[in-house]
User: What shape does this take?
Amino acid sequence: MTVKMEMNLDTQVRDAQELARIQVQSGLSIIIPTYREAENIPLILQRIDKLRQEQNLTLEVLFMDDDSRDGSVEAVERAGFDWARIVVRTSDRGLSQAVIDGFTRAQYPVLICVDCDLSHPVEAIPQMVLALATGQQFVLGSRYVSGGSTDDDWGIFRYINSRVATLLARPLTQVRDPMSGFFALRREDFNTSDPLNPVGYKVALELIVKCHFDNVAEVPIHFSDRQHGESKLTLREQLKYIKHLRRLYIHKFANAMYFLQFLVVGASGVVVNLATLTLMLLAGFPNAACLAGGIATSVVSNFLLNRRFTFSYAREGNIWKQFIGFVSVSSLGMAVNYAVALGVLKSSVGAMPLGLHLSALVGIASGMIFNYIGNRYVIFRKTHIR
Ligand code: GDD
Ligand code: MN
Assistant: This one.
């Protein structure tokens, strides 16, 4: 369930604000992933300090830096705030990894992640914490709820790109802006998440899925363009999103995803089967042999593709043992396939144009459900999670 924040001031909300005040005073850990942001560090620290004084906040700021060597360390030191420090990371680089690393080092009960380039208004933090206090599990600073916006000079490419990426995440979460890098959650919820292994930029999406958050609030923000330094969001980073999505889909819809991938491989097997059959037919083999040849080649290609993709968690297993298993389990399906195909061929279908191909297709369909069940639950059964 997604809940938009309504800021009406009835008594209930006032109680919540009191609660939020207590929560805020017990402390916020603001985690800022940075890579080459030396120019922006003093600017964001000034803004956080202003907020800190105005709202009387207890907080720490952790810059999680991937060894920028651009004066970032000195910039944090020069600012001279005892509540701000920088962690220079030299291994396991990457935006998501840096954020998660920062969360595990945080000392306060509320965790907040914000970009260093001043794209995110830190002034929205109190409202985000209030949302946590009113029962939300995760709060996003969102560009796409009413009241939210982006700077006008967002190119059409960046806009479409962001919208398509959001759409692809729809089955994982209903929130409007799951791509946002500005969010807040409780440390206790973070600590109970499923194992995290994000790739790329979408750390909020990772947390929503792996922490099983149902109550996600979105607080509208204005997303400003960065004034200093450069964006690190390259095409290569964006392609990682597809990989990340695959992992998250598998995590959330494990069985359906195995079946879906199995179907895709199966579809490729149909092509292999019919291609073989056609070639053999052209080479003058008898119909029954063509049907058998198509089945044999597709079994091999299906095995290899399922091993590599559908059941990739079992890739280290002995390939020959798995192949024998695959063929034995498939053998009944293949027999079903072959028998049905021959039967259909003998019927009036055999006399139709492309009758042999049609017979092969009906055979394939008959053998398929059978194969899936055997493979998923016998040959490639899950022994460990990669
Ligand atoms: N530690 C670390 N390691 N930090 C990184 C890395 C990295 O490999 N790459 C980027 N960062 C830091 C940047 O220094 C910045 O503070 C923040 O992560 C966001 O990086 P940008 O390069 O400014 O990314 P962006 O503006 O294109 O993307 C932002 O907006 C997207 C939505 O449009 C981020 O907030 C994304 O998470 C968000 O999806
Ligand atoms: Mn940015």
